[in-house]
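Need fresh eyes. Consider my entry:
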Amino acid sequence: MSLLSSFDPHEWDRYGFAIGGILVLALAALPFVTENSYLTGLVFTTVMFVTLASSWNLLSGYTGYISFGHVAFFGIGGYSSAILFTDAGLNLYVALLGGGLFATVVSLPVAAATIRLSDVYFSIIMLAFAELMLQVAVTLDITGGTQGKVLPIGDYELVTYELMLALAVATVLTSYLVVRSYFGLTLSAIHDDEEAASSVGLNTTWYKIGAFVLSAIFPAIAGGIAAIYWLYINPSTMFAVTTSGDMMIMSVIGGMGTVIGPILGAALMTPVRAETQAAYPFFHGIVFGLLFMLLVLTVPNGLVSVFGKSNRLDGIVRRLRSPDDTATEGRDD
């Protein structure tokens, strides 16, 4: 009997929560122990993409409906929060909640109109929706048009850093709870065979709408936090189609349809992209693309599959478990 096959998955969860908790505490303390703005900015961007990739994965990873336009909610939340914070003069936290709520309301009719489409048409319509939102931001005066919107200068760097970290934690925990719920089981059934799921009486449309709306909330709040952190936004940044591509790439590299996959993908690809962009400013897109192709070809099921197949896990488990348990396991074999 393999030691891994007999190991209680919930024990892995406990170890994962312990390691994750330590990592979160370390990242939360980072701004207090260093004045390296590049490092804190890189961590901010990384945890932002953990939120974005995990949110994208809630819809596309678990249902199989690939969204090329999820950046639209990032932009809607960013601009809504910026307007509420700058023009309406609302408190930072109220502005962020307001932006997230507005994007959630917008996501409802979008979900109802698109989620019944086939996979390919859904992807195309979502891409068109993101482009439409970009054009709206370019046209409206309240958004600043093509010149963008400047937010009031203030000491918001620390609070927005901590808020983005907290949002990433909330997104990952939500994903974890979804996976282990009846709702998540239904989404998996839709991913595997939607017709079969419908034939047993499941209202797949409502479940898909629920996943769509849930996956729009966190990017919207992240967009608001990023807007206040950056103190300047413009349409080409907030509605960049490449951001949707990054969400997808990070989820695929880490492992779609898993909780840990988007975290691994974001933690790997965000620093790599930053370094390649600094080292090869004119060719970083090619370098990044070649790396993505290499990873997809070598680990087609994502980085999580590497951990799942590693024999080193047996040794790790043996060290984590008590000697008595390990001895008992050996007698059973």
In short: The two ends are 5 Å apart (CA to CA). The beta strands are 149-150, 232-233. The chain is about 75% helix and 0% strand.
